[in-house]
């Protein structure tokens, strides 16, 4: 195997990253993959595609804020509609 080949580079990279690669063996709470994180950001990826159709910056910012509120509610086990309504009610207070 030639070190400058793609395979050689891949093996060298893997060996350099080995402590990070097997880190999950030291801590049973760590996951071997990042599927949970990938699923969590999927709505933002979809939102990004939708924001391309915003007519102005304000519309895109409003969409981003709403997505953030909804995803925050989901991440904390709350009902998104109830959480958004609570936030709007709090914002409406003098």
From TrEMBL:
Residues 68-93 form the Transposase IS66 C-terminal domain. InterPro entries: IS66_C (IPR039552), Transposase-related (IPR052344), Transposase_IS66_central (IPR004291). Residues 2-61 form the Transposase IS66 central domain. This is Mobile element protein. It comes from Pseudoalteromonas gelatinilytica. The lineage of its organism: Bacteria, Pseudomonadati, Pseudomonadota, Gammaproteobacteria, Alteromonadales.
